[in-house]
Design a protein that fits this description.
Blueprint: H1 3-28, H2 49-63, E1 110-115, H3 117-120, H4 127-137, E2 139-144, E3 148-153, H5 158-167, E4 172-176, H6 179-203, H7 218-231, E5 236-243, E6 249-255, E7 263-269, H8 277-290, H9 298-301, E8 303-308, H10 313-321, H11 374-385, E9 390-398, E10 402-405, H12 417-435, E11 440-443, H13 444-447, H14 455-461, E12 467-473, H15 488-506
Parallel strand pairs: 7-8, 7-9, 9-12, 10-11
Antiparallel strand pairs: 1-3, 1-4, 2-3, 5-6, 6-8, 10-12
Helix pairs in contact: 8-15, 12-15
The structure holds zinc ion.
Zinc ion (ZN) binds next to loops.
């Protein structure tokens, strides 16, 4: 071999190695790696969290039960889940398994949009038609507003339900002919991704393995929150603010350089179990805020962010394991065999009036009293405890593509409606520029419908918070709750824009 040939071989090897190095990460690195995020320097940060970690571990076991009796405790509520220090791989079983869980299937169940429901039904309250479709025709209500009602109907009821709607001159469009197929397609994307991640995860088991190309179980979301807390100990804290009926933790992550002095923004997701893109969007927001935190604009950095990706963990896990279209929590009812309360009808604002049901079998069952649910209680107590400087309450739902502000429990507007409309419009304009998607902006009772007991109205009316928005993420009904994983990142980026615009307007 001449030296020239040898050099050619060396050059070829170098080129090949470079090409492989360039291809490999993009091919295999679907899992997001928190350890690669830029840490935040300690200067000017006054949370003193590094020292607090030790303190939290010691005090954690004593504190949680005291939170509700003394609301100020929540500010120093101590994370009881510091297992990132024990190199918890985040893969542990969820812990709460019901052997009776048999997955509900929707083979050839159809998704319908029923128009002009007020023509045939009571004008004051849309619920009767939904009630009838639920109780007599095995329907599951997906969405109802002043213009239409989306409902899925089991295969065996399709004929009878169609006849019923025709009898009442209700114009109906079929949005989808096989809901199970949509669910299976959604799951297939996840299965492929999981395989490509498998090799990676064995290397460094401490990773949550979160990414935004698929939806994740609660374990992964909570492991991600712990990872973030561990990666940014000087600006992040993790709180367990309560437990669910099935014993799962309710977790809130805070991000702040000065928790109490800064103006605060609360973000929550996953009040409704089946709206999977909501927790995905909220975790995406956490990730985006902390990616290059030090390069974020001052209006982001000078806020205290309190973020709760999953307000309804029991319902969420039930929707992942057993019934993709589950909405409520999983609290058993004393006298009915039907399970669960609609948490977004359980807050103490106009409770039990419009747009909610007293029937435990219905999707919008409001519970036995306002704040009857552990999840509602935990959030109410916690928000009360951080009330000082709390300027914004943002709650993420799907679907509709709408940015709405109070009220929904009565036909009236928040006293901040002018600002809310302006900021909402600006967010919608930026979303349109970025992804091309159109979001409607307006007051809840007009854009969506009248519905009492919502967390947004409570935040506005009872807590007096100025920037209160509900964002209904994608889509407009093509897939509804079963939004394909390929749309998560785009949708989440739309959700982020709302948070950014609100932060900007506060400063
Ligand atoms: Zn919702």
């Amino acid at each position: 071999m001449t030296s020239n040939t040898r050099w050619n071989v060396v050059a070829l090897v170098v080129v090949l190695a470079t090409v492989i190095a360039l291809i490999m990460p993009s091919h295999f690195a679907t899992a997001f790696d928190v350890s690669r995020m830029t840490p935040v320097a300690d200067r000017n940060i006054r949370t003193g969290n590094k020292m607090l970690i030790e303190k939290e571990i010691i005090e954690e076991r004593q504190v949680v039960s005291e939170n509700d009796s003394n609301s100020t405790q929540a500010e120093v509520a101590l994370d009881e889940d510091m297992s990132f220090l024990d190199e918890d791989d985040g893969d542990s079983d969820d812990g709460v398994l019901d052997v009776n869980e048999i997955p509900v299937r929707y083979d050839e169940a159809q998704l319908w949009r029923v128009y002009n429901i007020s023509n045939a039904m009571s004008r004051r309250n849309m619920l009767p038609l939904g009630d009838i479709l639920e109780s007599k025709y095995g329907g599951t209500i997906w969405k109802e507003n002043s213009k239409f009602l989306d409902v899925s109907i089991d295969k065996k009821h399709v004929k009878a339900a169609r006849a019923f709607l025709e009898d009442h001159n209700l114009n109906t469009e079929v949005l989808n002919y096989n809901i199970q197929e949509m669910i299976d397609n959604e799951a297939a994307v996840g299965a492929n991704l999981t395989q490509s991640e498998a090799g990676q995860r064995t290397k460094k088991a401490a990773r949550s393995g979160i990414h935004w190309k698929d939806y994740h179980d609660l374990d992964t979301i909570y492991a991600f929150m712990r990872e973030i807390r561990g990666k940014f100990p000087n600006i992040c804290r993790l709180y367990t603010i309560g437990k669910t009926a099935e014993g799962r933790d309710l977790k809130v992550l805070s991000i702040s350089e000065n928790l109490t002095a800064n103006k605060k923004i609360w973000i929550d997701g996953g009040i409704h179990a089946r709206e999977w893109v909501s927790p995905a969007t909220v975790t995406y927001i956490i990730n985006q805020l902390l990616t290059n935190w030090e390069k974020q604009p001052s209006y982001i950095r000078n806020k205290s962010w309190y973020i709760m990706p999953v307000m309804n963990p029991d319902g969420y896990m039930y929707s992942r394991r057993s019934n993709r279209l589950w909405r409520k929590n999983r609290k058993p009812h004393k006298t009915s065999s039907c399970v669960g309360v609609d948490l977004n009808r359980n807050f103490n604002i106009g409770w039990g009036t419009v747009g909610s049901s007293k029937n435990p079998c219905h999707e919008t069952y409001h519970g036995t009293s306002a704040n009857s649910e552990l999840e509602t209680q935990a959030v109410v107590n916690y928000i009360k405890s951080i009330k000082a400087n709390l300027e914004a309450y943002l709650t993420y739902h799907s679907y509709s593509q709408a940015l709405v502000y109070p009220y929904g429990y009565k036909s009236a507007k928040s006293k901040y409606a002018t600002a809310l409309q302006r900021v909402g419009k600006e967010a919608a304009r930026l979303i349109k520029n970025k992804t091309g998607k159109t979001y409607d902006v307006g007051v809840t009772y007009k854009v969506l419908s009248l519905a009492a007991g919502g967390s947004d109205d409570w935040s506005c009316s009872v807590m007096g918070i100025k920037y209160v928005y509900t964002i209904e993420l994608r889509d407009r009904g093509q897939y509804g709750f079963i939004l394909p994983p390929a749309q998560i990142e785009g949708t989440a980026s739309e959700g982020l824009i709302l948070a950014q615009q609100v932060a900007k307007d506060i400063s």
